[in-house]
UniProtKB/TrEMBL annotation:
It comes from the Bacteria. Residues 7-162 form the N-acetyltransferase domain. InterPro entries: Acyl_CoA_acyltransferase, GNAT_dom, N-acetyltransferase. It comes from Catenulispora pinistramenti. It holds the Pfam family Acetyltransf_3. This is GNAT family N-acetyltransferase.
């Protein structure tokens, strides 16, 4: 479990199937990540549970610390076809514009680099997904290459651990 100033990220499980379906039912939310039927959500959540068991990481349900309400999802996802770990974020529309995706994304990157010792973390973003591009850029990620994901072109943003460490050192120096 990861806790930030305003959020709690806990591993997504099969118990989250109704939330998963509801989160992705909004056309504004699912325009880039797709909607989920019950069967598709159950399959996805089983895969997430398998990832936690095999790799020690996966996607999380993001809850508000203030209310305990599930407001989105974030976490790390292994992409076998790319041989890379991706940080992702998706939030219910009523929680957009509050900095939650950046807060969760920053916590996920810190976790991936500092606890899991990953060397690089990516974000696969479809063209036109300007809010996710803005989050990736706020997190220090830069576009590295183009790929195809689920039959559609996407841009792979990335941040290397050395870049994250250098940015943290510069921020610490600026504070002193």
């Amino acid at each position: 479990m990861i806790t930030t100033e305003r959020l709690r990220l806990r591993p997504a499980t099969m118990a989250d199937v109704d939330f998963w379906i509801e989160l992705h039912a909004d056309p504004e939310v699912n325009q880039f990540v797709g909607a989920y039927t019950r069967e598709k959500a159950e399959t996805r959540l089983r895969g997430i549970e398998d990832s936690w068991a095999a790799r020690g990481y996966g996607l999380c349900v993001v809850e508000s610390l203030a209310t305990g309400e599930a407001i989105g999802r974030s976490g790390l996802n292994w992409w076998e076809q790319f041989g890379e770990t991706e940080a992702g974020w998706t939030f219910a529309r009523e929680h957009w514009g509050r900095g939650y995706a950046t807060e969760a994304g920053r916590a996920v990157l810190d976790w991936g680099f500092n606890k899991l010792e990953l060397d690089r973390i990516t974000a696969l973003i479809y063209p036109g997904n300007h809010p996710s591009i803005a989050v990736a850029e706020r997190l220090g990620m830069t576009p590295r290459r183009e790929e195809e994901l689920f039959g559609k072109p996407c841009v792979v943003y990335a941040l290397d651990r050395s870049e994250a460490e250098a940015a943290a050192a510069a921020a610490a120096k600026a504070k002193s």
